[in-house]
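INTERNAL AUDIT FORM
Audit reference: QA-55
Scope: verify that the stored structure record matches its stored sequence.
Auditor: D.O.
Record contents follow.
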Amino acid sequence: MAVALGGRELAGIAGAVLAARRHQIPVLLDGFVATAAIAPLARLEAGIVAHCRAGHVSAESGHRDLLRELGLDPLLDLDMRLGEASGAGVAILLLRAALACHAGMATFAEAGVSGASN
């Protein structure tokens, strides 16, 4: 008796995550299905999904537990269950805002903060 878990789309997600790791591209996971797709990778080799971040934790049963098992802290916890990458879509806005703040932030010396040291 053959046992099958998931479909080709889950294998595709897992393959894309592996390719992203090889090319040092960060991955923002969206929802339970995307997280479940990478779980076998994490079981095979610890740290293989270190380049991944969870965009959010969905309201689907088990997603929070799966993220905890993988050691991924979600960027957002908004009780979303809409699908269509809506959680990652919101999370990417948060990441873009953080990058803009970081890139545009002055040093203490540039900002004229007293007691600043180089």
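Auditor finding: record pair retrieved intact. The two ends are 67 Å apart (CA to CA).
Action required: none
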